[in-house]
Amino acid sequence: MLEALRQAEKAFRKNEVPIGAVIVKNGRVIARGFNKREKTQNALFHAEIIAINKACKKLKSWRLDGCDLYVTLEPCPMCSGAICNARIDKVIYATSETTSHDGLCEMILSSTRLNHKTLLVHDEKYQQECAYLLSEFFKSKRNKKT
Amino acid sequence: MLEALRQAEKAFRKNEVPIGAVIVKNGRVIARGFNKREKTQNALFHAEIIAINKACKKLKSWRLDGCDLYVTLEPCPMCSGAICNARIDKVIYATSETTSHDGLCEMILSSTRLNHKTLLVHDEKYQQECAYLLSEFFKSKRNKKT
Fold first, then answer.
1. Considering only CA atoms, which of B106, B104, B78 is closest in space to residue B90?
2. Greatest CA span in chain B, whole angstroms?
3. A6, A41, B78, B87 - which has most CB atoms within 10 Å?
C-alpha cells in the first residue's frame, strides 16, 4: 500500500485528485498508476485503469488471474467493473473517505450477475495518510476558489 | 444505432464479441468503437471505452456534456461507470440479451450516490439485428468447441 500511496503523492504534486494504485503478482509490483484525469483531459484515466492497462500489456493477457490491486481510495463503479472484467483476485483499499459512491464498489465486485467475483479488503494501515492527502487536496482547491 | 451495428459487425468479422458503440454530439457522430478485447488482450478495450477515449481526445475534455452514446448491447458495470464519469447525457442500447449483468447498468447510471445521472433508453429498432449478431457469434464459438 505504501507504493500506492507514493503514486497518490505523485498525483498530488501534479494537481490531480491524489489517488494511486499498484498491481501485485506473486509478491512483486507489476504495474503502477496515478490519477491523470486533468492532465490528459480523459475521463478514463483513473489510477486503477492506468495500472490495469499496464498490467495487461505486461502480461500480454486481458486476464489478470493471480493479481491483487492495492489502491488508496475505494474504487468508483468504472474501476470496480474494470477490476472484475480483468479477473483480478483481490482489491485492497486504504480509505473510502471523500467518495460519494460508497457501497457500489462492493456491490459490483461481489455481484452474482457477473462472471467473476473479486474480494474487497479494507486495509487500515495507511488509511490516515491516504485520507489526509485527499482532504488536503480538496482543502487547497476550496481555498483557491475563495 | 445503425452506425453502432456496423461497428459490431466489424468486431464479428475480427472474431471479437460483436459489440459496437458510437458517440453523437449535436446530431453528428464524433467517435466510434468496437470491442477489441481479444486482439489487444486488454480487459479495458470494450466498444464504449474505445469510443469514450476517442471522444475525450477529439473534444480535448474529460467532460462529454451534450453527448449521447449508442451501443448495441446494454453496457457492463465498467462501461456504465465510464459513461457516468464522462458525464454523458444519454445511453441508447439495442439489446440486453446475452448479458449476465442485467440491472447493474441502470443502477449505476441512475445512482444518487454518483456526481452525474445518465438517462438509459432501450431502442428496439435494431434490437433483433444486434441480438442476432451476438447469438450467431456465441453459436459459432460453441460449434468450434464441439
1. B106
2. 48
3. B78
Judged by CB atoms closer than 8 Å, whether chains meet at A81 and B79 is answered as yes
Q: Work out the minimum CA distance from B134 to partner chain A, whole angstroms.
A: 17
Are A116 and B101 a contacting pair, CB within 8 Å? no
Of all residues in chain A, the one with the smallest CA distance to B37 is A62
pLDDT in tens, B54-101: 999 999 999 999 999 999 999 999 999 999 999 999 999 999 876 666
Beta strand A119-122 with A90-95 is parallel
User: What interface predicted TM-score (ipTM) does this complex get?
Assistant: 0.92
Q: For all residues of chain B together, what is the average pLDDT?
A: 93
A 10 A CB-CB count for A40 gives 17
Q: For residues B126 and B61, what is the distance between their CA atoms, to the nearest angstrom?
A: 31
Q: Distance from B128 to chain A by nearest Cα, in Å?
A: 23
* Grid cell digits, residue B70: 449508442
Residue B82: what residue type? A
Q: CA geometry: angle at A60 spanning A70 and B134, to 5°?
A: 100
B108/A70 Cα distance (integer angstroms): 23
- Measured between CB atoms, does A89 come within 8 Å of chain B? no
Secondary structure (3-state) at B48: helix
Per DSSP bridges, beta strands A90-95 and A67-73 are parallel
